[in-house]
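ESCALATION

Customer reports they have been waiting on this structure for their group meeting. Please prioritize. Original submission:
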Amino acid sequence: MKKVQIALQVLAFFIVAAFSLQSYAGEFVEKQYGIKGSWEVIKRDGKTIIAFDEKFKTKNGPDLKIFLSNLTMDQVNGKNVVSSSVLVSPLKSNKGAQEYELPANVNLDDFSSVLIHCEKFSVLWGGGSLK
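Update from on-call: job pushed to the front of the queue and completed.
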């Protein structure tokens, strides 16, 4: 009987753990310029990383940066990106696989979208929904 109780407790733990894991991944959505490819959030060595796939491609720009915004893709625009977001990093390349480490104090549950934005000219290239 005791073995059955322990087995049930272990099973319950794994079920709760599986349902509490939040998965973040999606396809890029165009706002101002075409964007192709997908992104996902991965955990590696205790770090949280946004990884773009090898199919990622967009038009080059003068000041493209990656942001996390608390606004949804429907709410965000070129004028409100900076005020509603946390800067992650300048965009490394306008094509191909690339990774961006998130600051340790960032909780993805506090954000609604990942964005590619030209800060210099306040133009939102596009992004993806985190929720």
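Sent to customer with the following note: Residues 14-21 have pLDDT under 50 and may be disordered.
Escalation resolved.
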